[in-house]
């Protein structure tokens, strides 16, 4: 599965850019609906007015007694924007099931272990990029823009510190759900599963799609002084998905990245450890290079695992047969568009016993996807 190609057939009736814009707009709509629902829930639970909730959101550090309410607001908004809205788009706009995002549905222990380990080891590398990014200075003529960016960064940092100042086990569980589980599932579903696949269909370039998705993934967080490390993290998750053909691996890696940091902050606050991960802004160069080398070795091992699997199963299988050449050509063209490299066998020119059939064949790693596309997505009318 070294190259999963594009598996969605999302653009047969719409332009790729139009589908992408539709997805983004629906996700933004989901965010708005999620915020509205979250406010109603908080009002009901805490007997607050709409004005009080809005004031609390604007100045969260002044309301430590409502930390659980802030978790509810954050969690529901993210769930609607990154999980429910994209699912609605995939199911009712594209009329596809979520399983189509996993052309290689099998899960193996080794790549799971590698994905988790890569995510944790790569943190030390990314801390150095975060240190560099935080020192960014814009030219004088952009001073007003820089001032606004700094204010935005300080506001988001204040919210992050508030949400990660965990005082008890209940807050740790809520933080894990809101900061680690929901973003891991939702952001990978939206960005890697949908946006990356759509950009791949649009650009016909897998690597460009991965990097563009990483840029969008970072931009959506509106944290300019953490843009580069978050982009690199998105690219890392993108390649994990590209090589494996299974969203579970980047979801687990994303969870490990966020969850490990939340857990370490809790352990430090509880005085279980003296290491404060928030003070890891300055990473020694020896740690950076060591982590970088280990990360590269682990990433190559992860990639090699799926490339080896691809070679082991490179056998040809029939996915479609007909006695009409134009139908065979349509199937071949569609599968070719999905980077499956199909071959067409015309038995009218052969001595096969079932003389007159025309078959389309693909290799083993594509057989399930190809059959699903032929059965559900190709219309010869």
What is the secondary structure topology, with strand pairs?
Elements: H1 16-46, H2 50-58, H3 67-93, H4 109-134, H5 143-164, H6 169-203, H7 206-219, H8 227-244, H9 248-269, H10 285-312, E1 316-322, H11 325-337, E2 343-346, E3 358-363, H12 367-376
Antiparallel strand pairs: 1-3, 2-3
Helix pairs in contact: 1-3, 1-6, 3-6, 4-8, 4-9, 4-10, 6-7, 6-8, 6-9, 7-8, 8-9
Task: List the keywords.
single chain; about 375 residues; mainly alpha; 2 domains; 3 strands; about 65% helix; disordered N terminus
Please describe what this structure looks like.
- Helix 1 (16-46) packs antiparallel against helix 6 (169-203), helix 4 (109-134) packs across helix 9 (248-269) and helix 7 crosses helix 8.
- The chain starts with 15 loop residues before the first helix and ends in a 5-residue tail after the last helix.
- A three-stranded antiparallel β-sheet has the order 1-3-2, with helices on one face.
- It has 381 residues and is mainly alpha-helical.
- It contains twelve helices and three strands.
- The protein has helices at residues 16-46, 50-58, 67-93, 109-134, 143-164, 169-203, 206-219, 227-244, 248-269, 285-312, 325-337, 367-376; strands at 316-322, 343-346, 358-363.
- The chain folds into two domains: 16-311, no CATH class; 315-376, 2-Layer Sandwich (Alpha-Beta Plaits).
């Amino acid at each position: 599965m070294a190259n999963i190609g594009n598996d969605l057939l999302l653009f047969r009736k719409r332009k790729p850019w139009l589908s992408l814009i539709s997805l983004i707009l629906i996700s933004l709509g989901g965010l708005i609906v999620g915020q509205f629902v979250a406010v109603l829930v908080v009002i009901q639970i805490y007997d607050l007015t709409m004005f009080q909730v809005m004031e609390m959101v604007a100045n969260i550090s002044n309301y430590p007694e409502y930390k659980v309410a802030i978790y509810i607001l954050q969690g529901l908004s993210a769930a609607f924007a990154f999980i429910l809205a994209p699912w609605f788009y995939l199911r009712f706009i594209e009329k596809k099931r979520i399983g189509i995002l996993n052309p290689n549905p099998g899960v193996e222990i080794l790549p799971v272990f590698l994905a988790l380990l890569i995510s944790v080891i790569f943190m030390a590398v990314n801390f150095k990029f975060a240190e560099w990014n935080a020192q960014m200075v814009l030219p004088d003529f952009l001073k007003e823009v820089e001032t606004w960016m700094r204010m935005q960064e300080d506001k988001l940092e204040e919210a992050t510190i508030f949400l990660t100042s965990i005082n008890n086990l209940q807050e740790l569980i809520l933080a894990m759900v809101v900061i680690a589980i929901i973003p891991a599932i939702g952001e990978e579903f939206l960005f890697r599963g949908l946006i990356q696949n759509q950009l791949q269909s649009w650009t016909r370039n897998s690597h460009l799609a991965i990097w563009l998705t990483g840029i969008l993934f970072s931009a959506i967080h509106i944290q300019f002084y953490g843009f580069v490390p978050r982009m690199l993290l998105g690219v890392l998750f993108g390649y994990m998905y590209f090589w494996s053909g299974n969203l579970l691996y980047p979801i687990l890696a994303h969870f490990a990245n966020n969850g490990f940091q939340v857990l370490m902050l809790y352990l430090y606050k509880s005085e279980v450890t003296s290491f404060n991960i928030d003070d890891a802004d300055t990473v020694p160069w020896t740690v950076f290079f060591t982590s970088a080398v280990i990360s590269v070795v682990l990433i190559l091992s992860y990639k090699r695992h799926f490339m080896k699997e691809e070679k082991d199963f490179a056998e040809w299988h029939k996915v479609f047969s007909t006695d009409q050449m134009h139908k065979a050509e349509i199937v071949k063209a569609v599968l070719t568009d999905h980077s499956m490299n199909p071959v067409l066998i015309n038995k009218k020119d052969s001595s096969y016993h079932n003389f007159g059939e025309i078959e389309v064949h693909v290799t083993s790693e594509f057989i399930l996807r190809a059959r699903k596309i032929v059965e559900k997505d190709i219309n010869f009318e």
